[in-house]
Amino acid sequence: MSKPSMILDMDLRALRRLKWKDVWSEREFLSPEEIRHIFQTCDALWLHNGDPRVPHAELTSGKCSNGFVDVLRVLRYTNLCQILADQLVHRLHEQGGGIVDWVIGSDHAGATLSYTVAAHLNAQHDFTEKGPDKTQVWKRFQIKPGEIVLQVEELVTTTGTLKAVRQGIRLAHPHPVRFAPFSLCLVHRTPIYEFEGSSIVPLIHFDIQTWEPEQCPLCAQGSARVRPKQNWTQLTGR
Ligand SMILES: [Zn+2]
What we know:
By secondary structure, the chain is of the alpha/beta class. It is 32% helix and 25% strand. Bound molecules: zinc ion.
């Protein structure tokens, strides 16, 4: 077995051989540098280098950004998804949480991560599905009164999806739904750490800036705006 302590030296091939039980038995939490290394090795993290000749990111919200995290590029590797989910569960335990009846994520990348967290907590799982106008729809199960729901997202930029999921669940129930006082997120890239009374517990924070196009310094310098997922090769040069 490769020593988890050597994560910073691992290429993708070595990372894919890591097992979550080995990582946890060897030590406690991965360091921010190690998590960042995992994201970079999986080609999931792009940061603008400051050169205005290089394009920058146009987000779904219409805002501009000097970086982008495509979390699904990491989560597609099931062992890495398990390792990161396990780390999130330990963060939850550290905060005194962990007894939940449901773990709920969102369509699309939030579904695999929330499923894996649910498996670690032995909880029930499903995810909301995309509806019109950025809504999230809950339609396959009824959550019983009193059951505790933990929300899990792979990426929190504006808390918009967390709110949309909660709203979708509420709309599908005639009774109030009980949410855990925590929500878990894998990648946190916002100054916000709380929403609707739940603390957002992140595994890693990336300091990536976001601006309205009128206030964007990169637009002002003539850098082009591109949609990151569709132009990943152009942005990353890989
Ligand atoms: Zn811009």
